[in-house]
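Today's session is about reading a structure prediction critically. Students often jump straight to the picture, but the first step is always the sequence itself: look for stretches that repeat, for charged clusters, for runs of hydrophobic residues. Only then move on to the predicted structure, which in these notes is written as discrete structure tokens rather than atom positions. Here is the chain we will use throughout the hour.
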Amino acid sequence: MTPTLLGRWETRLLLFATAGSLVTAIFGLIFHDFKTPFLVLAYVLLFGFGWDAVYQLLITYRWDQDWPTFFQVLAAIWEAAFLWLLLRTVGLPGLKPGPTGGQFIWHYTFVWLSVFVISQGPLRTFFVGWRYRGGEWL
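Below is the predicted structure for this chain, in token form.
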């Protein structure tokens, strides 16, 4: 499937609202703080919408206009590094002092893995039409 930009946004929003929120709630229980993990999730979602526009532009330069799995992993690493850099240098509203490095890495990793696994398996299996509409839901 080659997603459209709207498909990327809709899928990101759906997966973060479901799997991402569930994982984040678990981390909120573990850290005894729900505000920080959910704010981090919101910032990942917000910046992700911008990154999706960049990724959509980049795939137009590939001969098959596809975004292989390896690129998804690199994008996840880049997005995490970018957000962490913002957190530690300029800060983000509502995240003072913010999560520790360990909390951020574990939380980000588990959210990303849950979203990745669901998008690569169950989503493609149970929502076949989603694949043929470029990832668009509505």
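Discussion point for the tutorial: The longest helix spans residues 5-31.
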